[in-house]
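Subject: design request, 725 residues
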């Protein structure tokens, strides 16, 4: 169907826009621009300075009846091209075709609804896509500069960035272990750092010292000599073991004198003193010295290990381990001082600070650092580490928007499935329509014929008393007709203008239900009928009105592939006949449109109405009198026609006496208005036009009113002008 007609600078149209419906009536006088519109519709789809919008899937044939149709189709040399229709003997096939066409129409209607739904879904999907892209783009703004390599190639496109995020969505689970930002940043920096290299793991902490150093029994023991002699008993009693031991060497150097009192000391006493420090005592002292040596070796080991610890680099933090070693070394140094004191005074008991906790912490730290180093080395050496790191970045991003994104993606998925299903349905319906159309073509190829059109037109001519000519199949040109007299003689050159127009319309009427070729036999049609009643008598005018009404009814009922109709006319009788649908039947405003075409200052304009604005041409002329500004150039001609029609109907009036009622300029005006009333060559439909200047319009209107008053018909004037008496 045609949904919009726009005319710009065409003929007398300046800028006009029409929004047609299924059935369209256009009323306008001769010369207002009706044929311009019918020619425009006949020239689709390419017309300069005009645009005509149709349904997207519209493929109707446009058939236009106007004077050009008559001239182009009724050819004196060859007659009329044949119209293929279905013969009466093939009623069964016709019913099959009607059923197939009905099925096609139902499917096409459903396809239109589905496509409207498809357009709605497409819009919703586009909106959801934009919302999804905006949700994902927030991640780019937050993490794009932190992890640029993870989003490489997508940072300048919302669409590509969203596609990357969504591509990982299906493998993401909301209950995954949370990825810590700081840890991921370290891994990312390691994977994508230009200076990253394999790092050596830390040596295991040597625990061999611990088994020796943990034996502190000698430290807790008071080491003294033998007390079997009197001197030994005295030393033990005085608790002077360490003091005496310190003086032995001095006594040996003092040549037999006591190193303490310088008195001579006997050899027996010197011997007892030396025997006091027996082998057991000496062994224990030696063990203490050995223990001290182990402690010194241990602190040397700790210092060497401490010095071997690397500085912080590439995300590996060694500072804690360094601090732990410093603390342990300090504690070991304190223990060494205690051991040294014990070595000097073996009889004194002592205890060391435990080191187990410090050593355990160091071992744990070394283990943790080695794990971090191994992970670092794995990332550096593993060719897939970068990809894994990128996935972790995407996973962390998804954890931030998971619920929001899931909601939008679920909605998008649901609508996309609906759209896909809808398109599949439309495709299946379209395929089925093609099957039905193929079946119709097969039937048409078997039963289509030009003869039914000849028989139908001849029957109409006979029923309405046109016995002077008829149609017959043209034997000289297969598939065409000839107009002949009853004796078979060619009649095309001797037809009157009325007969010529009538036979052309009958031909057009049948063309609306048939086709000149088989391919178009079942295509939908847009019918345009432009003033078909010119030069026809009243009997023929009634026939044409009835046939036009039949086309309109077929269109209203969606039958015979009549999809849309435009009727253009200047004749009030014809307009009344084709717009009247009976007292019990009326057309919805969604189905029918009414237009009036007028021309002012040589510019045509179109006014639309929801209801028919034309009751009769006589009332229409009075409407112009009530609104003289809209048609000042033709107002005097309208007044003359009103007087002619009304006073001819009343009859028996003395027009000369009417003129005598006026004097001066009013007498001249009156005479000009009624001088044609007795001229039988003019009627309400004549094309004679009087022109006066704008300045004299008021004078003519004044005389026009006075004529009705002076002839005693002022009540009629008041009634038509809708004035109170």
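Subject: RE: design request

Done. Sequence follows.
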């Amino acid at each position: 169907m045609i949904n919009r007609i726009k005319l710009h600078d065409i003929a007398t149209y300046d800028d006009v826009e029409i929004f047609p419906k299924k059935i369209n009536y256009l009323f306008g006088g001769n010369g207002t621009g009706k044929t311009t519109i019918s020619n425009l519709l006949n020239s689709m789809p390419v017309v300069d300075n005009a645009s005509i919008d149709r349904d997207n899937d519209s493929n109707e044939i446009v058939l236009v009846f106007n004077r050009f149709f008559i001239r182009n189709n009724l050819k004196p040399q060859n007659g009329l091209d044949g119209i293929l229709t279905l013969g009466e003997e093939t009623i069964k096939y016709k019913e099959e075709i009607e059923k197939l066409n009905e099925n096609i129409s139902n499917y096409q209607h459903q396809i239109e609804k589905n496509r409207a739904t498809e357009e709605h879904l497409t819009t919703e999907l586009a909106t959801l896509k934009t919302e999804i892209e905006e949700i994902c783009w927030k991640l780019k703004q937050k993490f794009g500069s932190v992890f640029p390599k993870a989003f490489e190639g997508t940072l300048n496109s919302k669409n590509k960035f969203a596609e990357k995020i969504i591509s990982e969505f299906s493998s993401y689970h909301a209950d995954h272990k949370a990825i810590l930002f700081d840890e991921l940043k370290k891994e990312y920096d390691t994977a994508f750092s230009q200076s990253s290299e394999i790092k050596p793991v830390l040596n295991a902490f040597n625990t061999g010292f611990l088994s020796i150093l943990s034996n502190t029994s000698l430290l807790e023991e008071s080491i003294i000599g033998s007390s079997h002699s009197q001197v030994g008993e005295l030393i033990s009693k005085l608790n002077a073991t360490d003091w005496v031991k310190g003086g032995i060497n001095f006594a040996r150097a003092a040549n037999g004198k006591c190193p303490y009192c310088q008195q001579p000391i006997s050899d027996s006493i010197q011997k007892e003193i030396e025997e006091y420090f027996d082998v057991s005592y000496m062994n224990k002292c030696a063990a203490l010295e050995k223990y001290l040596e182990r402690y010194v070796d241990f602190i040397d080991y700790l210092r060497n290990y401490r010095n071997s610890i690397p500085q912080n680099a590439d995300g590996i933090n060694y500072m804690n381990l360094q601090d732990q070693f410093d603390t342990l070394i300090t504690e070991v140094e304190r223990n060494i001082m205690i051991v040294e004191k014990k070595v000097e005074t073996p009889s004194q008991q002592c205890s060391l600070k435990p080191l187990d906790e410090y050593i355990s912490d160091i071992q744990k730290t070394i283990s943790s650092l080695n794990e971090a180093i191994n992970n670092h080395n794995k990332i550096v050496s593993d060719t897939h580490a970068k990809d894994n790191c990128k996935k972790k970045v995407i996973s962390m991003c998804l954890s931030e928007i998971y619920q929001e994104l899931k909601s939008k993606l679920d909605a998008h998925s649901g609508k996309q499935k609906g759209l896909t299903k809808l398109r599949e349905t439309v495709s299946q319906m379209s395929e089925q329509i093609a099957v039905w159309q193929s079946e119709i073509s097969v039937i048409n190829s078997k039963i289509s014929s030009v003869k039914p059109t000849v028989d139908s037109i001849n029957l109409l001519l006979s029923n309405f008393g046109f016995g002077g000519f008829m149609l017959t199949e043209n034997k000289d040109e297969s598939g065409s007709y000839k107009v002949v007299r009853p004796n078979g003689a060619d009649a095309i050159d001797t037809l009157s203008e009325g007969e010529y127009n009538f036979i052309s319309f009958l031909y057009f009427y049948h063309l609306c239900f048939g086709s000149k070729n088989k391919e178009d036999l079942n295509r939908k049609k847009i019918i345009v009928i432009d003033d078909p009643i010119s030069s026809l008598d009243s009997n023929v005018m009634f026939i044409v009105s009835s046939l036009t009404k039949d086309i309109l009814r077929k269109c209203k009922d969606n039958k015979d592939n009549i999809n849309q109709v435009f009727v253009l006319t200047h004749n009030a009788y014809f307009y009344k006949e084709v717009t009247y649908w009976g007292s019990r039947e009326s057309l919805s405003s969604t189905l029918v449109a009414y237009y009036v075409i007028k021309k002012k200052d040589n510019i045509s304009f179109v006014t639309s109405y929801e209801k028919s604005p034309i009751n009769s041409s006589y009332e229409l002329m009075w409407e112009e009198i009530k609104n003289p500004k809209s048609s000042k150039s033709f107002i005097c001609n309208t007044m003359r026609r009103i007087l002619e029609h009304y006073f001819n109907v009343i009859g028996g009036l003395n027009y000369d006496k009417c003129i005598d009622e006026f004097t001066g300029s009013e007498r001249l005006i009156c005479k000009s208005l009624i001088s044609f009333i007795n001229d039988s060559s003019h009627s309400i439909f004549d094309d004679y036009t009087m022109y006066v200047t704008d300045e004299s319009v008021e004078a003519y209107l004044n005389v026009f009113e006075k004529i009705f008053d002076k002839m005693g018909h002022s009540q009629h004037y008041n009634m038509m002008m809708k004035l109170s008496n």
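The first strand starts at residue 2 and ends at 10.
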